[in-house]
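quick q for whoever's on today - can somebody do inverse folding on this one?? i tried earlier but teh output was garbage lol. tokens:
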């Protein structure tokens, strides 16, 4: 962020606490400058020292600091058995889209004989989940401001940086001999935020930029014309196998007071906030005919980010208590159970590059009603795996709910089969393995 005196004075006028903030920022600015000098010093030392530290030595250095480790035994057991090691950097450890797909990439690399270490400055439920699946995870406060990655990078064959948020890591690793895969997931709105202004305008040859889809790649190239970027779509686990006509309409959500009867069921799964469009969904339900609304079930699932939108859902639930259900945040297994009980996933996102919920629903042969603000809409169109509407168009979404409510079983089954085909062609593990292998083999700076 670029600070100007006018910006500072405006902030101070708004709040007396801004004096404290100004002092802090001034202090931080000095620390950052010293950090940059320290980074250059480290690079200079490396040029004069060709010794590559062992992974265990690099990790032991962390014991002097304050950090949390999930699955520490995985770090110290049989490290010598691994010829290839990867450091995977996440901005957080939440059970949300980008961290989850990074975890799944780590699983694939482990299957191919890699050692994978996941690091993040922010703790979350993914840390324990990853350790239980054989991926040690470290929570290192101030990770992006520290020298840790720069100091230990040479103990790893590849560093994977997830999303644009760890841009400071990318800046530090430019012009080094470290192989870096920068996996970008962001929508266009992310580039309007202050941190995006700090991204390097160009990256060096050791940084290989990959975007999760064509939508993400277009948004990146609009703003960073000098980036060379490939596409690497994540994989989503196969939750069901092939579509079975007998599955449709035979199981129902039963969670406490919720008992969804044999009616067409629609689910919107994701963090409750403006970006995911739950407010659009609320208005669309209000616009439905009484017949369709009473003959359907609408399930909202997700942690709350914006309380005003949650309040809209709660108000709708109070008015239509036999139709609308809010399940709040669920763990991954429970979310997967919800998928099995719905007939259609609704993705009402205003801007969403490639929502994981769409891939998961497709794996279960669930057709999708998708906003064109989501990158997934291109896949839904191509495979005829549902319906696409213009983002923010609550009336069109309501019309599509009316349409799908009246679908015959044969027509529904056709969409379900296409949904499964879309999953297998785009999001399956085999496709991801092939694409990841191609990325590593084709990038000249990564050749052994």
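ok took a stab at it. sequence:
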């Amino acid at each position: 962020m670029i600070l100007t005196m006018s910006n500072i004075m405006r902030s101070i006028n708004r709040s007396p606490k801004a004096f404290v903030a100004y002092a802090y920022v001034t202090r931080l600015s000095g620390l950052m400058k010293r950090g940059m000098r320290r980074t250059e010093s480290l690079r200079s030392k490396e040029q004069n020292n060709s010794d590559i530290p062992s992974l265990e030595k690099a990790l032991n250095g962390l014991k002097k600091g304050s950090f949390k480790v999930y699955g520490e035994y995985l770090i110290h057991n049989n490290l010598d058995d691994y010829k290839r090691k990867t450091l995977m950097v996440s901005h957080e450890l939440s059970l949300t889209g980008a961290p989850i797909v990074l975890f799944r990439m780590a699983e694939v690399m482990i299957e191919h004989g890699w050692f994978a270490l996941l690091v993040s400055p922010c703790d979350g439920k993914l840390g324990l989940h990853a350790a239980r699946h054989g991926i040690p995870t470290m929570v290192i406060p101030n990770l992006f401001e520290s020298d840790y990655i720069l100091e230990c990078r040479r103990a790893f064959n590849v560093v994977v940086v997830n999303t644009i948020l760890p841009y400071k890591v990318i800046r530090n690793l430019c012009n080094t001999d470290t192989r870096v895969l920068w996996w970008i997931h962001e929508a266009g709105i992310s580039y309007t935020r202050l941190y995006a202004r700090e991204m390097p305008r160009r990256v060096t040859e050791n940084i290989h930029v990959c975007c999760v889809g064509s939508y993400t790649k277009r948004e990146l190239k609009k703003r960073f014309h000098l980036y060379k970027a490939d596409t690497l779509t994540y994989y989503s686990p196969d939750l069901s196998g092939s579509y079975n006509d007998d599955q449709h309409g035979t199981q129902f959500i039963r969670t406490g007071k919720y008992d969804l009867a044999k009616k067409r069921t629609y689910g919107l799964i994701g963090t409750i906030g403006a970006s995911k469009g739950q407010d659009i969904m609320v208005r669309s339900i209000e616009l439905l005919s009484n017949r369709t609304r009473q003959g359907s079930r609408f399930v909202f699932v997700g942690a709350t980010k914006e309380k005003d939108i949650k309040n809209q859902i709660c108000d709708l639930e109070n008015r239509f208590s036999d139709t609308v259900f809010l399940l709040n945040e669920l763990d991954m297994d429970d979310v997967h159970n919800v998928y099995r009980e719905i007939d259609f996933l609704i993705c009402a996102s205003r801007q969403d590059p490639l929502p994981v919920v769409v891939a998961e629903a497709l794996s279960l042969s669930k057709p999708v009603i998708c906003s064109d603000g989501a990158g997934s809409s291109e896949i839904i169109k191509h495979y005829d795996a549902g319906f696409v509407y213009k983002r923010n168009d609550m009336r069109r979404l309501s019309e599509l709910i009316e349409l799908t409510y009246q679908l015959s079983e044969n027509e529904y089954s056709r969409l379900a089969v296409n949904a499964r085909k879309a999953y297998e062609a785009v999001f399956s593990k085999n496709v991801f393995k092939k694409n990841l292998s191609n990325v590593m083999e084709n990038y000249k700076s990564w050749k052994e």
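fwiw Residues 283 and 394 are 6 Å apart (CA to CA). also The radius of gyration is 24 Å. so keep that in mind when u check it
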